[in-house]
């Protein structure tokens, strides 16, 4: 065979699966033989059921004949460096696992800013996949009646950046990481303080964004365990599950949803950018969710974080119902002062004209009323199209900027309703 690709021979069974190393991943291969994995024997609240191939040994060869797993065994019984010896020993106690190759854990505790040694970036890559696969196996067996959408939410809730960052804080992992980025310390400290000040019921959607480095550490340590135990996914789960406790259950999601975290994870998987915008109207806080610049959902409550959570929950519902996300930008209309306004309408109209290759919109003050200390304005907008000139006047506002936006909002609505765009 001229190009055998990456071949995995399973000595436990007479089976061989050959695939191209450039097109398939180890994780994808693991999914191929998921049908051999054992059935669950425990409920999700007791000892975890887990997918595993008992006594499975791997022989993996690259196209040039290198035995990947043999390479990992060559480095067994390697001590940590003197500099990291204490940190490695402390983290081993936290994880409850004694590393054969302690340099793996040392690498997992090295940030990229520390240039004198290999950073955890490669381990983070495989740790993300390994934890994702482990959680997929767990929720698949623990919840046999759930549909893929609900299973995805459960998995996302347990391996999100927010969740893993809190795991790192809970077990004090950050203090053992070597780095040369002082700014990281302040971010982590701010996040840790915010967690301490939270009510016990708060698990997701905290007031301070979780620093990514904290989640990276957990993924890297998980990867170090995974590689050190010769890529045994079951052993990884048995060792690492305790660190992830409490595992988010279906009941948790039903009683205390975590929509913001799951929204970001769901969209990240699809390669989409999420933006949650906030503004106030009187005593009300308004939050709107945009995905790739397109309006998806909005909510209005007295509490900013509550508005954010409700908006994210509604966005999740819509995205799960239809992955197409074919939502026009002008669907971001929402009621405001009794009229329909579009947040950032002036910029959106400008972008629309650019896409249609129309000249830039022309705004003008049509009317000013009231004394100098209480002046109000009515503005108009005019755009030139291939079919002629379109003109629209907005509502009266206390600022010219708002009056311009009102005119742009009404213009966008008119274009949409007339099916002009």
Automatic annotation (TrEMBL):
SUPFAM superfamilies: dsRNA-binding domain-like, RNase III domain-like
Domain spans labelled DRBM: 245-321, 344-417
A Pfam cross-reference name: Ribonuclease_3
Gene3D superfamilies xrefs: 3.30.160.20, Ribonuclease III domain
Keyword annotations of the record: Endonuclease, Hydrolase, Magnesium, Metal-binding, Nuclease, RNA-binding
Transmembrane domains' residue ranges: none
Gene Ontology molecular function, alphabetical: metal ion binding; ribonuclease III activity; RNA binding
Record-level GO BP terms: siRNA processing
A cellular component term, taken from the record's GO annotations: nucleus
Residue stretches making up the RNase III domain: 88-230
Names of the cofactor(s): Mg(2+); Mn(2+)
PANTHER family associated with the record: DICER-RELATED, RIBONUCLEASE 3-LIKE PROTEIN 2-RELATED
Protein name: Uncharacterized protein
Organism ancestry: Eukaryota, Viridiplantae, Streptophyta, Embryophyta, Tracheophyta
């Amino acid at each position: 065979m001229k190009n055998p690709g990456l071949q995995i021979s399973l000595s436990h069974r007479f089976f061989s699966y050959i695939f191209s190393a450039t097109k398939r991943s180890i994780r994808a291969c693991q999914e191929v033989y998921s049908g051999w994995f054992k059935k669950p024997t425990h409920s999700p609240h007791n000892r975890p059921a887990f997918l595993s191939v008992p006594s499975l040994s791997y022989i993996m060869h690259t196209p040039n004949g290198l035995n990947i797993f043999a390479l990992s065994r060559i480095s067994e019984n390697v001590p940590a460096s003197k500099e990291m010896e204490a940190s490695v020993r402390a983290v081993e106690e936290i994880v409850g696992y004694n590393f054969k190759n302690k340099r793996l854990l040392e690498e997992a505790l090295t940030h990229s800013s520390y240039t004198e040694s290999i950073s955890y970036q490669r381990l983070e890559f495989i740790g993300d996949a390994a934890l994702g696969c482990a959680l997929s196996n767990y929720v698949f067996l623990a919840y046999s009646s759930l549909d893929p959408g609900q299973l995805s939410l459960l998995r996302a809730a347990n391996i999100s950046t927010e969740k893993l960052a809190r795991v790192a804080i809970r077990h004090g992992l950050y203090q053992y990481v070597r780095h040369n980025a002082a700014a990281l310390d302040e971010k982590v400290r701010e996040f840790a303080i915010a967690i301490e000040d939270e009510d016990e019921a708060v698990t997701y959607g905290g007031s301070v964004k979780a620093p990514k480095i904290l989640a990276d550490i957990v993924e890297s340590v998980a990867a170090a365990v995974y590689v050190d135990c010769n890529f045994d996914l079951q052993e990884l789960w048995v060792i690492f599950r305790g660190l992830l406790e409490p595992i988010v259950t279906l009941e948790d999601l039903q009683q205390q949803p975590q929509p913001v975290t799951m929204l970001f994870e769901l969209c990240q998987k699809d390669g989409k950018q999420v933006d949650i915008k906030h503004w106030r109207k009187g005593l009300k806080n308004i939050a709107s969710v945009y995905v790739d610049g397109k309006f998806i959902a909005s909510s209005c409550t007295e509490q900013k974080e509550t508005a954010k959570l409700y908006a994210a929950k509604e966005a999740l519902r819509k995205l799960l119902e239809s992955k197409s996300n074919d939502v026009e930008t002008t669907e971001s209309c929402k009621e405001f002062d009794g009229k329909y306004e579009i947040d950032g309408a002036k910029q959106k109209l400008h972008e629309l004209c650019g896409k249609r290759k129309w000249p830039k919109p022309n705004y003008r003050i049509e009317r000013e009323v009231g004394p100098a200390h209480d002046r109000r304005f009515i503005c108009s907008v005019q755009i030139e199209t291939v079919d002629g000139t379109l003109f629209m006047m907005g509502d009266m506002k206390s600022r010219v900027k708002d009056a311009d936006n009102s005119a742009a909002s009404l213009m966008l609505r008119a274009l949409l309703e007339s099916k002009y765009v």
